[in-house]
Amino acid sequence: MATITASMVGELRAKTDAPMMECKKALTEADGNMEKAEELLRIKLGNKAGKASSRITAEGVVAAYVEGGVGAMVEINCETDFVSKNDSFLALANAAAMLVAKHNPADLAALAALPYEQDSFGPTLEDVRKGLIGKIGENMSFRRFKRFAGNGKLASYLHGTRIGVMVEFEGDDTAAKDVAMHVAAMKPVSIASSDVPAELIEKERAVAAGKAEEDRKAAEAAGKQPQPADIVAKRIEGGVQKYLKEVSLHNQPFVKNDKQTVEQMLKAANTSIKSFSLYVVGEGIEKKVDDFAAEVAAQVAAAKAAAA
Questions:
Q1: How far is Cα 277 from Cα 167, in angstroms, rounded to an integer?
Q2: Which residues lie closer than 8 Å to 300 by C-beta, 6 or more apart?
Q3: Per DSSP, what are the bridge partners of residue 257?
Q4: Is residue 188 a contact partner of residue 247, using CB atoms and an 8 Å limit?
Q5: 111-128 burial by CB neighbour count: b if 16+ within 10 A, else e?
Q6: Which residue stretches of the chain have pLDDT < 70?
């Protein structure tokens, strides 16, 4: 049985907004597995447990560059929000985005080896990164990038420096820019419902089935007749269909006019979206959360052992 620490409970609570004791129970049941505990909370508490799951803790910036039909997005990470506002750090990110677009590097190592200043033989991006680390005293790294070319026109949108969107499209520039802003706000996972990844659908189906099972147990405990299997199956499938509409771009209510869907807005503007990409700073990265109480206890124990 895994040891459930206060820091683990705090991390799960920050992700889910669920009550502290519910987080501890979920972690205990999941034997310390954070992802499984989050899923258990969604089953028990519904969507309330997922509303804060997109909170990002790692720092850094997203930069974008577009020139004609070629563009790029990059994410560079650092340790603190203070450095993410540093002019030299921002300049490094912008230079990296431009170099990705112009030189199409194969990977992060190839990107880091490119000259910082276009068409020069001066310091590379890696040289500048190391220089900034020495000057500022904080680690920073190139995390990911994506280049766009040959699939239509491009529109980009940056929400501050933490969220970046690139849209490949045909049609009206204003409509495409609005879609990029919509993606930043609503974070769809695909253009159409049919494009939602199968693993996400199955995960949502499992959550809906788990919720139905909880309801069955609650009904039996109260001496009530559980819902028939066919009704439960319809409930589960209804939940999945609702999810598909919520996460597919075309079916989402347009952020500038919730009386129409994004698909309806695009049709009116005679515009089609070929693809979109969304970067959120630190997505998928968890900051290390130190359990100071455990650390102090370990140091005291080590000191006692050494004295003995």
A1: 7
A2: none
A3: 254
A4: yes
A5: bbebbbeeeeeeebbbeb
A6: 17, 45-57, 119-120, 285-308
